[in-house]
Amino acid sequence: MNKKLLPLVFFLILFLSCKQHVRNEVEVYNNDFESSDLTNIKGGIIGQFNGSNVLGQFSNGDFVLSLNNLPAHDLITVSFDLYIHDNWRGELLPDGPAIWQMLIDGGPYINTTFSNLDCKEGNICPPQSYPDNYPNNNHNPRSGAFRTDLPGVCSMKNDPNGTTMYKITKTFKHSGGSIAFECLDRLDQKDYPDPKCEKSWSVDNISIKAISL
Q: Long-range CB contacts (< 8 A, 24+ apart) of 103-109?
């Protein structure tokens, strides 16, 4: 064997021998909200968007999904669809930053901003933090989006691109018997007569999996 390849071969053998494998994966929660089921959800509201039930819309609000009696596990994977509705303007003042957060057991796993404004010539193009965390502001509006062709719900209801959909998936170490999954926003909308019409958000298709290695 070529001596120059020996370090690479040794590294691959070591990596493969140490790599942990998934032993078991259990979906402990799944909800598309079509049955309006809010069991275990504090602060939950059911709304309609694009012909489907969603959890929301929220503006200066939050919800907490609490699960107990989890099976033995080493990791948790949380996935869901996040809809950013209407006039989110990222970190543009005076009503920015438009912050959205995801917390697990009270600790932030996402702390970011979103922007729905288009980057057009002659138009202010306020950046957003996502897919990074705030205060990163190097991303164009709608960066990392799964869909950008959804209608707004109120202030941009006549805009065919007034809602942006993001597919969020996060995997993290977790071994406790219970978990609290929380989503919330920190929006400054005191100058708007109807804050929820100005900008809001909703969630759909929540799935939580417990993974043992």
A: 103/180, 103/181, 103/182, 103/183, 103/184, 104/76, 104/78, 104/172, 104/174, 104/179, 104/180, 104/181, 104/182, 105/176, 105/179, 105/180, 106/180, 106/182, 109/170, 109/172
